[in-house]
Amino acid sequence: MKRLNFHSEQTFVWVIAVLSSDVWWWYYTLHFDMYNCKDYMMYSFPFDYDSCKYIAELEKLGKELSDDMYENAEKKIQSYATTGNRMQLIFRPTLSKPKIEKIDAVLAKHYGLDEEQTEFIKSYDNKYRLTKDNEDEE
Fold first, then answer.
1. Do the beta carbons of residue 18 and residue 107 sit within 8 Å?
2. Is 42 exposed, middle or buried (0-12, 13-18, 19+ CB in 10 A)?
């Protein structure tokens, strides 16, 4: 575990947006072992904040995604002999897939991806990433 400090909530939410995207997942699976996710892997993602014309949009979508993830999270109480009861949040990112796809659309504009490339990345690895319940809905 490492600590990462942000200058503002706006910075925090655009980072959430970018690192929750299918674009990030596609990059990560192509370049790394999918067993570890280290800070250098995230820092190596080719996203240039200074050249991005869509930061405000990513901030808005990152906040929406964060709120949606918390809203969809399952709250579970775990009992431990030494520490007592603790509440855990179990996040279900697949329930926020529509929000993630909006982020992907913004990142596609940023990277100059066409519709076919964007659709490929949005659906990349879905059969492994989506739960059985969500696959039945599609």
1. yes
2. middle
Distance of alpha carbon 89 from alpha carbon 133, whole angstroms: 19
Look up residue 23 and give its two tokens. 């674009």
**What is the rounded average pLDDT for all residues in the chain?**
86
Q: What is the pLDDT of residues 46-89, one digit of tens each?
A: 998 889 999 999 999 999 999 999 999 999 999 999 989 999 99
Q: Count the neighbouring beta carbons within 10 Å of the beta carbon of residue 12.
A: 17
Q: Which of 54, 47, 51, 46 is nearest to 106 (CA)?
A: 54
